[in-house]
Design a protein that fits this description.
Blueprint (H helix, E strand, L loop, with lengths): L5 H14 L4 H15 L4 H11 L4 H18 L3 H12 L4 H14 L11 H15 L3 H18 L4 H15 L6 H25 L10 H10 L8 H20 L2 H14 L8 H31 L2 H12 L3 H19 L2 H18 L4 H13 L9 H10 L7 H25 L3
Helix pairs in contact: 1-2, 1-16, 2-3, 2-14, 3-14, 4-7, 4-13, 4-14, 5-7, 5-11, 6-8, 7-11, 7-19, 8-9, 8-10, 8-19, 8-20, 9-17, 10-18, 10-20, 12-13, 14-19, 15-16, 15-17, 16-17, 16-18, 16-20, 17-18, 18-20, 19-20
Protein name: Transporter
Subcellular location: Cell membrane
GO cellular component, one term: plasma membrane
Length: 435
């Protein structure tokens, strides 16, 4: 059954193509078409499903492009060297503590100030020159960012974590297990601990210095940043104010595109962006983020196609038929969750798909309610790290590859897949057997 399942084959095809350094955008498109064809749907029907499904990430794609424009506007002022100047005083010069600081900041984006990936294209590109000077391996920073984007929502019921846990509570209830948010957070911390261990291992593994070619612009920024007489001018204050407004409006309205648009308008009206340089700002924003935005679009389309193939239900039914016991059932459920999320690219969208089968399967195998919560939650979260189509990997790449020196697949996806998914599976299997 696995050898003919369209979900398994299409996700494996996508991963193989990406590892062979095939263009990520085309790899996802081809894998989506392959999924449809393997399910017996024609090319035309599959293409229509793909295009229709792309609507699911339209807001995210627009957000990426507008955030790119904000980042470009900031880069045209002295805010970048000022940021480097002050941040370099507070962040340790050692790789481990530098990356841990980035992970700590990233955690705020999920819970305390829920801006998700919005901070990355603004904070990370200005720090690339400093990372190059310190010879920091960007794979360590990629793992730190992905940890900060995923671990908080997996384990803490605040911000995006509350949303994740609420969806989990709802879907468990729909399938006969009524729990409270407190019940979920009382076991999902295990997933957070697993990822924390993975982060420490990643930072230890990537501790050796790595050299990157420094551009003339980065060298200039570092020289400017080393000056002690740096000060905020009118343009810098306006751009900073626009960025604050962008984040404030997003939190108030829950709309990142609206916040970014209003932030740009404020910058233009008050002179933070010169009127004659508007086109240049937008062009730089597009150059920085358009590719990532279009990957998000086709990723949503790919997820739509594999949902329509019927292969996910077939895959889960197969798991229930061969589980054989608690240990086998836990391993199979988590591996299938990994495959599904790798294809769909979102943990939040995976929960409703797998809960309908996983909950009855857990009950039939004798798992406790806490163990069922843990298995469904971790099965949904697995694959968010490491998936070429996930914003938990695309976000870090968008910042770390601002100068074109960071590979999405080999410098973000592969490291985060190894150091986060493996600990999550191990902890999920072990703890589900004993709680």
């Amino acid at each position: 059954m696995l050898l003919t399942n369209p979900v398994v084959l299409s996700v494996l095809l996508m991963c193989v193509l990406c590892l062979l350094r095939f263009n990520v955008f085309l790899a996802i498109l081809i894998s989506a078409l392959a999924a449809g064809m393997l399910a017996g749907k024609g090319l035309v029907e599959t293409t229509n499903l793909l295009i229709t499904g792309m609507q699911g990430n339209l807001e995210t794609a627009l957000s990426y492009i507008l955030l790119g424009a904000l980042a470009a506007a900031i880069s045209m002022t002295n805010l970048t060297p000022i940021l480097i100047h002050y941040v370099s005083k507070f962040i340790s010069k050692k790789v481990f503590w530098f990356s841990l600081s980035i992970a700590f900041i990233a955690c705020f984006s999920q819970n305390l100030i829920p801006v998700h990936i919005a901070f990355i294209p603004i904070l990370i590109p200005p720090l690339l020159a400093l990372m190059n000077k310190l010879r920091i391996d960007r794979r360590a920073v990629a793992c730190a960012l992905t940890f900060g984007l995923q671990a908080p929502y997996v384990s803490i019921s605040v911000g995006f974590g509350l949303l994740f846990h609420t969806i989990l509570k709802k879907e468990l209830g729909n399938n006969g297990i009524n729990v409270e948010i407190g019940d979920i957070s009382s076991v999902m911390w295990i997933g957070g601990v697993a990822m924390l261990i993975g982060l420490v291992l990643a930072l230890f593994y990537y501790r050796k210095p790595r050299d990157y070619t420094q551009s003339a612009l980065e060298s200039k920024e570092l020289k400017v940043a080393q000056k002690e007489d740096l000060c905020m001018g009118q343009k810098e204050w306006v751009v900073l104010g626009g960025a604050v407004i962008a984040f404030g409006v997003q939190i108030w309205s829950s709309s990142l595109p609206l916040g970014a648009i209003l932030g740009l308008i404020v910058m233009i009206i008050f002179g933070g962006i010169e009127y004659k340089k508007m086109d240049k700002v937008m062009e730089q924003g597009l150059a920085m983020m358009a590719f990532i935005a279009f990957i998000m679009l086709v990723a949503a389309g790919f997820g739509s196609v594999i949902r329509e193939t019927g292969g996910i239900s077939e895959l889960i039914n197969f798991a229930s038929s061969i589980s054989g016991g608690k240990l086998g059932g836990a391993i199979i459920m988590l591996v299938i969750g990994l495959l599904v999320t790798m294809g769909i690219g979102t943990s939040f969208g995976t929960i409703p798909i797998i809960a309908a089968i996983y909950v009855p399967l857990c009950m039939s195998l004798g798992f406790s309610v806490p163990a069922t919560i843990l298995l469904v939650g971790i099965a949904a979260a697995l694959g968010d790290a490491g998936s070429p189509a996930s914003d938990s990997t695309l976000g870090p790449t968008s910042g770390l590859n601002a100068d074109g020196k960071h590979s999405h697949i080999y410098d973000t996806c592969v490291p985060t897949f190894i150091f986060f998914n493996i600990p999550l599976i191990v902890f999920g299997v072990i703890f589900s057997l004993f709680i």
